[in-house]
Amino acid sequence: MGPQTSYVDLLIIGAGPAGLVAAYWASEYGLDARVIDDKPDRVTKGHADGITCRTMEMFDSFGIAGHVYEEAALDYQIRYWRLNAEGRLDRAQSINSQAAGVSRFQQCLLSQGRIEELLEDRISRKGRLRVERDVETLGLTLHKRDDASAETHPVQVTVRQRGGGMGDENVEIVRAKYVIGADGAHSWTRRQLGLAMRGEQAPHVWGVIDLVAVTDFPDIRQTCVVCSEHGNLHVVPRERGMVRLYVQLDGVSLGAAGLRSEATLETILAAARKALHPFSLECARLDWWSVYQVGQRIADRFSVGGCVFLVGDAIHTHSPKVGQGMNVSMQDSYNLGWKVSGVLKRQLQPHVLETYETERRPVAESLIAVDQETVAFYAARGDHVATRDLQCFRERHYAFLSGVAIQWYDKGSALVYAPSAIELATGIHLGRRMPSYRVINYADARPTELARKLASDGRWAVILFAGDLRKAVQLRRLEETCAALVRSRLLRAPGSGKLVTITASPRDGLPLTGLPPLLYGGENGQDRDYDAVFSDEPDVYGAFTDVYAKCGVDGEKGCLVVCRPDQHVGFIGSLDDVPSLNTFFTGIFRDS
Amino acid sequence: MGPQTSYVDLLIIGAGPAGLVAAYWASEYGLDARVIDDKPDRVTKGHADGITCRTMEMFDSFGIAGHVYEEAALDYQIRYWRLNAEGRLDRAQSINSQAAGVSRFQQCLLSQGRIEELLEDRISRKGRLRVERDVETLGLTLHKRDDASAETHPVQVTVRQRGGGMGDENVEIVRAKYVIGADGAHSWTRRQLGLAMRGEQAPHVWGVIDLVAVTDFPDIRQTCVVCSEHGNLHVVPRERGMVRLYVQLDGVSLGAAGLRSEATLETILAAARKALHPFSLECARLDWWSVYQVGQRIADRFSVGGCVFLVGDAIHTHSPKVGQGMNVSMQDSYNLGWKVSGVLKRQLQPHVLETYETERRPVAESLIAVDQETVAFYAARGDHVATRDLQCFRERHYAFLSGVAIQWYDKGSALVYAPSAIELATGIHLGRRMPSYRVINYADARPTELARKLASDGRWAVILFAGDLRKAVQLRRLEETCAALVRSRLLRAPGSGKLVTITASPRDGLPLTGLPPLLYGGENGQDRDYDAVFSDEPDVYGAFTDVYAKCGVDGEKGCLVVCRPDQHVGFIGSLDDVPSLNTFFTGIFRDS
């Protein structure tokens, strides 16, 4: 008797941050999915820690931003230390860690292990999906219609639950419709697929150490770049009073296969002390340490056969210096997960999966480019790195580093409607994530972040900028829009779309019951959703966001904006242009 | 063999909101305490629901404000409906539910049962204190030194765990040092003490009903006062789409002992429909209903023998109309609980317990007075209640209704230092709760609500407005203040005090390590608390709170403010005046 065979819609290999975000979607869509991980336990120390504001927005859409914020070290200001004219280490400049107004969240730092824990907790609150640990992968085969199940479950992965023997009773053949390989820089999945990583190894070796420090260095609780005559040091504040130090280790090389042949904890601490001189540095508690040499590589392809996809470090490796690794990796899965889920749920046409690589490869390429520049910038020694250079450098890359500016429109994507009437919403960028502003609930006057209505629940959002409803002609237009929307395939497929209305006219102008019933009463007009219509007016205390102006939308005529389940804007059109919306949807949704 | 006798420091009778706030303090101080309740289960429906912004601040200091806010219906605006010139019910005016700037929290509504649940969850996270339910109280005796244990445990309460028989094995004699009676309007504890309630019964009968309504009344999700020709109706939005209706029932009287002799659910619904005419009103789901006649009474005394105290409805009853009942009741316990705990922990002198009644009786009296006026105001029929009257009425009582303006200075209290130099902080009111503003963390630039440092952890807070530390003379002054504070009894007793420093000079002016080590390094100067020193400067994006100006404190010289564990200001003085602070403390703290 051979090993047992089981069938699953989606198999996720690797339960790091990228794998867990894929699992989040699988759980939210109620997929028949499994998540396996090679390691017996969750990572608890070290590794990644930087969280961009866009990742915070994603966490918020999962409902876990509050927990992250409560524990994380928030990063407001970078301080730059260099040798002054007298040759003493001195504070040269303070610059903002994050540009003003990009997001309602602040970038912050929290250990990868804790983030994984929060993601797992969130997933387990929703459904039955749980991480299976200590599961070894033995082989991966892509079947080509050689048996009946190859049509539906083309990927075969042989796995073994460790802890038993090598006998068949611990081996299992998993047949999956789709596989997501989220198994890191040394990805087993990637190797099975025979994909190569292209790129280079930078010459510099850095040490990294997480510790509780006792020091008279006054900026130990904020991000610092210290350029001393004895090499460079980066200070990164962390949760629970910890601090992470990145220390440039010159004259140290890594042994074969990245073995820590020369550098030790003592080497790193000694280099850190030299760089911080004349300030003291004592280690009250060591949490983790490592040594790395930067490899900047990107995978040939991100998927094979339209059914095995790679995410995160499995397709791009780089230095930890730009604080992007975990973010870009999770955003890979955030992009891919809802698409695979939509296809498996028979909502989306399978060809939309091609947009994963068209949308994410440019991000990976930018990441490598920014990282190369960053590594070179920081590897430059001492005081010749001018303060102004640092500021310019940060500003040049800020849009990318924040994560909020990423868009795919100019690269083309079936999931972004290129002929959109972008001139109707000049403050909203087609392809980019929808910005969130404070709107006023029509029914109870409560100020509400628009983002709350765009939670990652798997639904597309049709945002109706309804314009000025005190004008009878505009109200009639809106009624026609609603009539057209009722017939659209988005709202016909249950659970795939949601309506959010933002009026330019104030709540006092027209009672909620004067609006088209579809907007607050469901398709039959009989339900009551008192959390679906909002107005763009001052709150009761007079604070005014002016969402129409910020979004560049005409306050009389309004417009129609459609956000994908990942909050990215897929369509912009006039209220009359539901036909174009239907054209867009016809290209991506399945007939039900 | 008689019943078993057990000994406890504090016995709390009643596990409603007032009893649980007392239990919160007992748990936070780690007291040997018990909470018993007559009922077999927690209330799950109906009863109180209004939460003032001050109560939200208290919840925030317990760490549960986020949970409450997430579930509650937030109350931003009151709409006033009356008959228009054509005799039709019409929206006459909208006024703010809460005056601008009183609190960082908004008043809201959530059922009493859910609040009790959140309080119990919070208490159980901290220690071992749990509510014992279905426990009947059989007798209460105040011992007068007739046995050895009367000295230490003067109160004897005989209780019986229900569910067993009447045999001795289910009966227990509890000897307590202190008892808090939080057992409601029909308080058993009060009757045992032979205390009387003084006051009157208003003639009006009201029905109250919690339901999910289907209606075309457009303001069903916000607070409304509806004055129709068919009597008055109040609409109060609630959590989970529910709404509470208060309906004036004219011609209906209550039977003996408040029996619901005439009014039924149908009576109430019919009266509500008449008042709302011509709008429809259907009940999609009934949650709870009741009928009440307003009794406005206050107890003769709030305590007996210096060891049995009454809180909440046990000492004041009134109508639910001002939305104060649960708030004032919890604030009673919030005031009493830390005092009893401090005495039991041998930090405070027993005479401070007298301040409970001196501080809370004026609040109860104001409550009755406001309630009488409110009931009369709303009982007035139809359109002769002018809109302007409503606005004036709300404005006149707003300070009281918000809960934030309550202060005890003018009534005198051993726990408020009357000779304080109040002119040094003209924006802070001696005796009133300390306002919270956003300050900037000195170590990491993170904006922080001052209130977070004043969490209800049982510690007194010494807030050092340190002034401008760029001036050498001011820094020297601060050093002298610190030297004097180290010798003060507050900081000598471990766990009884905490220091919070707010500089007027910016973070860039002086590194944290340039400040007196006491402020961030503990008494020995060797610890590191990076969350104890703040500056009053713009955040990195330029937003400036100007805390010194808001508090009316001189930006050069600063001052010293001391908050009690309940966040009320007990002392205001100059940085040099630690001697006065010691005088204040000598009168209330025990020698340790």
TrEMBL record, chains A, B:
FAD-binding domain boundaries: 8-368
Recorded metabolic or biological pathway in which this protein acts: Secondary metabolite biosynthesis
Keywords for the protein's UniProt record, in alphabetical order: FAD, Flavoprotein, Membrane, Oxidoreductase, Transmembrane, Transmembrane helix
Residues spanning the membrane: 7-26
Ranges where the Phenol hydroxylase-like C-terminal dimerisation domain occurs: 413-590
Pfam families per UniProt: FAD_binding_3, Phe_hydrox_dim
Family of the protein in this entry: Belongs to the PheA/TfdB FAD monooxygenase family.
PANTHER family: 2-MONOOXYGENASE, PUTATIVE (AFU_ORTHOLOGUE AFUA_1G13660)-RELATED (PTHR43004:SF20), TRK SYSTEM POTASSIUM UPTAKE PROTEIN (PTHR43004)
Name used for this protein in its record: Uncharacterized protein
Species whose genome carries this gene: Apiospora rasikravindrae
